[in-house]
Amino acid sequence: MVTYLRKMGLSSNVMYAMGFGSIALSVASWATSLKAEPGADMARADRWGIFVGQWAPTFFALGAAMRLDEQWGAKGKHKEMEHHMDDMREPMHVG
Known about the structure:
Layout: H1 2-7, H2 12-36, H3 42-53, H4 55-72, H5 78-88
Helix pairs in contact: 2-3, 2-4
């Protein structure tokens, strides 16, 4: 899934921005729900804020997964490490 998101042109920074954006949208939806529907109670506004606020952890988790994929994925540093690991595994001649 992370590779698919990267192919769509998204990066970890975009996912982090979307996480922070969803926090701001959560506050905005809470405030809008309070003012837009005068007859509605505070619980309705809270539910809207919580619903949108639950998106933030998902975006942050995807951002962290994409950051790891960017660093260690198909084009990441793990290829360099494999080369060094092969050098470290050379047999030691004794005697």
